[in-house]
Amino acid sequence: MSNSKQVLVTGGAGYIGSHTVISLVNAGYQPIILDDFSNSTPEVIDGIQDILQKSIIIYRGDCRDWGMLSSIFDKHKFEGVIHFAASKAVGESVEQPLLYYGNNLDSLMVLLKAMEQFKVSNLVFSSSCTVYGQPDELPVTESTERKSAASPYGNTKKICEDIILDVVSSTADLKAVSLRYFNPIGAHPSAKIGELPLGTPNNLVPFVAQTAAGIREVLTVFGDDYNTPDGTCIRDYIHVMDLSDAHVQSLTYLKKQSNSSYYEVFNLGTGKGTSVMEVIKTFEEVAGVRLNYRVGPRREGDIEQIFASVKKAEEVLNWKTTKTMKQALVDTWKWQQTLSKTK
Ligand SMILES: NC(=O)c1ccc[n+]([C@@H]2O[C@H](COP(=O)([O-])OP(=O)(O)OC[C@H]3O[C@@H](n4cnc5c(N)ncnc54)[C@H](O)[C@@H]3O)[C@@H](O)[C@H]2O)c1
């Protein structure tokens, strides 16, 4: 197999990683996946290969395993790395902070060591809008102050961003971008891959889909007395395929940078805030079902509203979202029906 345009995708069997693998192939890259399946399953690879109608190289293993990681770097000539692998459940991170600091920080550090040793200089890192906390002004731009993190998970994203900046600023030959995702939703339109929440979903959209499918009895709206037009919280929901495409644009952009210590952060959202109630009503419309929901008290740790300014990503990366929230919910529902059929 040709060595051209090989990209290491850690966590490539996960939700955002699997969709990015599709976008990478469509853009002429050859993604190589490394995943330990701690939060995904090997069937995801079948879904990816089914969509692409070709096989993908996958290594099953832990990103922190230096022996394995270095042998992968030895075998391939990577043009860059997209680093998704991390533990991501906010609530679990509060209960088990060491698991989160251990996985999220060590994975990055072992990876950076391998990139240095094998002279791979382009890194795209999965960060999160969680680094902004409840911002003082909206929309948030990349220069909006990062607040102290509300959870160990959020703190790992802040620390990882700082580690990357320190390494970029050192003598190491590293160029990097940190992508601060807002709220990724939706699935590939083929409904062959999508989000696989293990256990009870923490996020609104998978919970909505599971309620519509009868897996969850009732959806609780956490508070309708916020200072927003309908009283429910507001987020910036981005279709996972738009998000995936941004990774390809970021990598392509990074490769063009001649400054060997290039580092930038980019917000990835739609720039538009949508309330919990708007999501519920739009989902009911696209799925043609009535959702069984009730309004409960506010949930601790939830911020009132956040949405992105995406001007920088649009201007610098030459990227733009193309899908609506409604389209994302159509794809979510199709994916939920695939999942329900296979259960
Ligand atoms: N989904 C979101 O809402 C969201 C928002 C902001 C940021 N992010 C970040 O984006 C990235 C991807 O998120 P996702 O939603 O696709 O998560 P995911 O859990 O679906 O995917 C992560 C993948 O990484 C794998 N993994 C975890 N630790 C590993 C390790 N040590 N070695 C090898 N593989 C490992 C898991 O098995 C999983 O397949 C994560 O870094 C996450 O923190 C996600």
List keywords for this structure.
7-stranded parallel sheet, 343 residues, 41% helix
Describe this structure in words.
The protein is an alpha/beta fold. The protein is built from eleven helices and 13 strands. It has helices spanning about 15-25, 45-50, 65-75, 90-95, 95-115, 150-170, 205-210, 240-255, 275-285, 310-315, 325-340; strands at about 5-10, 30-35, 55-60, 80-85, 120-130, 175-180, 185, 220, 235, 235-240, 265-270, 275, 295. The strands form four sheets. Strands 3-2-1-4-5-6-11 form a seven-stranded parallel sheet, sandwiched between helices. It is globular and about 55 Å long. Nicotinamide-adenine-dinucleotide (NAD) binds next to helix 1, strand 2, helix 5 and strand 5.
How are the strands of the biggest sheet laid out side by side?
3-2-1-4-5-6-11
Spans with pLDDT under 50 lasting ≥5 residues? none
- What is the rounded Rg? 19 Å
Gross geometry: globular
Q: What is the average per-residue confidence, as pLDDT, rounded to a whole number? A: 96
Strand content: 15-25%
Order of helices and strands: EHEHEHEHHEHEEHEEEHEEHEHH
Structural class label: alpha/beta
Bound molecules: nicotinamide-adenine-dinucleotide
Distance between the termini: 36 Å
Total DSSP helices: 11
